[in-house]
Amino acid sequence: MSVDEFLKRSYDYVIIGGGTAGLVLAARLSEDPNVTVGVLEAGGNRLGDPLVDAPNLFLQLWDKPEYDWCYKTVPQKGTGGRVHGWARGKALGGSSAINYNMFSMASRQDLDNWAELGNPGWGFDDLAPYYRKFETYNTPSKTLSTKINDSYIDPLLRGPDGPVQISFCETDFQWFQEVWPPTCINAGLPIPKDPRTGSALGGFNQLNTVDPKTMKRSYSANAYYEPNSSRINLSVLTNALVAKIEFEKGGGSEATATGVQFLVDGTSHTVKASKEVVVCGGVVNSPQILELSGIGSSKLLDKVGIDVVVDNEGVGENLNDHAACGISLQVKDEYPTAEVILRNPEIAQQAMEAYLNHKAGPFTNAPTTVGFFSLEMVDPNLADPEKHVRSLISDHHKQRPDSDPAGRDAVLAKSVLSPKEAIGQCVFLGVGMDKNHGDTPSKLFVHDAPGNWISLGICSTRSFSRGSIHIESSDPTKHPIIDPAYYAHPLDLDIAGRSVMYALKLAHVEPLASTLKKDDEGNLILHPSWKGGWPKTLDKAKEFAAENTVTEYHPVGTCAMLPREKGGVVNNECKVYGTSNVRVVDASIFPTHVQGNIVSLVYAVSEKAADIIKGT
């Protein structure tokens, strides 16, 4: 659709961002033929693009402006002063178009935490129906079922007919998918249950967002938008960068949005919204758009010359990300890893042809091997865990007494101390990682160390460190300042260090141990990008974690759904405080983090938000 065609139409709802959340809302709101919906997306339409469709080609999308916002953080004190590259999707489908395709589930405690913090209607039982609503679970063949050991899945807890397809890959199988589950059992981890029961401890092969019939990525653009693109009451404009929300001059105590100003090829346009403006820009763009529109801290807005519409210091605060510490170990030559493809253009071309012509080969199989472990599992010998955890929280609060107005830390401490909750996620990847490339995500798994490698990504589940995202200019084309404050909270680094030591113990358990190479002294071989030797003490493991941490690409929280007096930006109906008709719907409203990959929760939250909007 051209700009002129888009502007000729009138809209009840204008949605800012045609990403993971925005296209869910667009599809659900436009189900009513009497409602008109307009979507503004800064990126392009990549439907049918093989680089997006192929489940295991996501590295080819990162750091390319036609797919990726190419964000970078400020240098992080907690990770040795390193800058971290943040790949975020810039296309129809947003980050669901460029992610790993990994499909997790928040725990019962994760979501009940949201309700406890002042968000009635957002607990585990409230969101469970929406998980089922958006998905179709595809049962694997008997042959594959045996190989991947999917017995933990309960099909009755899974959605039968939703837009997003989830499955296990039938056309490619990696040796570590078979090795990982028995290794975790032999290490003493519990036999896993379906995460839909509310808990996900143990090691298993995780589902992917892949359509097994077409072997294509299943994401919001082809799941929610494409089947509904012919609706006459749904209009989508791509390559349109939103500059700000426009508000009615004067009026009552609440600001009323009248439309959205946006740029196409540098030219400014304005589209009107007769009912609501819904911001779905994601964790980076949503607070940026609110601040550009005059919603945020008056001190910041005055500094950049933006008139204050709503003074709210919570906008852009409470940034919370999953930190991921990569432990790369060399494997024996007979166990193939991604280095075979990454280092050999001829083999890479063959793999691409296998995908394009036969929908087969390594580009069809996204990462599946994961594990979730509790504090009790990680360190069963920790003396008085409750005293240890609460003392670290207390020490942090003494240094930063205003850092936790919502009381998140006390709520999250219960999750850390619970034997049913995971303090960490281990993602097993069949490729080596060089942390020195953490500022350029597309190069993170490109390295010069000879041989074949695996990586155990030790990821946080509920980080206590909270940073911020804020504009430094009124220019919408300039990226905001991103400061995730990795390891600013001492408990995060403590948990990371203990998790590193635990993961290294896992690597000595069969059958995984037999796949790994050893040096002349019989030790497993760590990637040479780490110069500090084998981490044998907790202090050394903490040092290792800080030096080898990157993002897991799961930022949340910058427009938190909380009571306003506790730092909230939106209420439990996703409405922005101080406005009558502006909402935010995406991962930026998550009040606290949850375990595992978050795309499933973005879908569930968006489905629920659509019902809230339609109900009102």
From TrEMBL:
The Glucose-methanol-choline oxidoreductase N-terminal domain, residue ranges: 89-112
Binding-site residues, FAD: 242
Keywords in alphabetical order: FAD, Flavoprotein
Cofactor: FAD
InterPro entries in the record: FAD/NAD-bd_sf (IPR036188), GMC_OxRdtase (IPR012132), GMC_OxRdtase_N (IPR000172), GMC_OxRtase_C (IPR007867)
Annotated GO MF terms: flavin adenine dinucleotide binding; oxidoreductase activity, acting on CH-OH group of donors
A Pfam entry, by short name: GMC_oxred_C
Family the entry assigns: Belongs to the GMC oxidoreductase family.
Name this protein carries in UniProt: GMC oxidoreductase
Species this chain originates from: Lophiostoma macrostomum CBS 122681
